[in-house]
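**Archive record**
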Amino acid sequence: MTTKELITQAEHARRCSVSRKSVTIWKDRGQLVMVDNLIDFEASYKGERWHASTKKVFADDVVQDAARASAEISANVRRRQAGPGAPVTLSRGEVVRRLRALDWTQVFDWSHDAQRARALAAAAAVGLQAVESYADDDGHWGGFQLRNVALMERHGGLCFDAIAAGYGFELEEGDVLVESRQRLDHPDDGPDDMADPITIRLAQLPLLAYPFGPVHQRPAGKVA
């Protein structure tokens, strides 16, 4: 008769390349075979997808689904980019001038659902995809990651360089708005940057205008 290999939760986490928190979640969900406070490793681990580390699952998805994901990403972002008015090409300086004229002039719905929708649409307006993850995914803080759609299309799927911000999926809705706006209006941009051509739907500029939250206040001395 084969002797059961009973191991601690910490050892199970090491063998599966995940955090102890993930093992605790699996235990609470009844996905592990427990003997008292120890785990029957052979009975519990059968190579299921949820046992793999986030890094491994992430890499497998990129390799296996790159073409499909790229097509879906393009379609989803273009749907969000679609809106009233045709895209126009202006200098970045002119786009920023119009954007700043909209700052602090609007009233927004600050509910979670409304702000989530605004963040997704604002990211898409500047060629980014806001991808959301949840806190119980191993290695993720529970928030958004921003990805550069053009780079993903160029490389046939997700690559390291295409991650624009939020490597650990730690961005909140307001962070997504800040990062998206800075694609147009970054504090480090100079005159040469402002001369670059930008193609955008002007009807989407209000998404990127301040304020970015219910307690976001106009800096002292700034006027509309």
Observations:
- The two ends are 79 Å apart (CA to CA).
- Residues 6-51 form one domain.
- The beta strands are 6-7, 34-35, 38-40, 88-91, 128-132, 144-148, 163-165, 197-200.
- The longest strand covers residues 128-132.
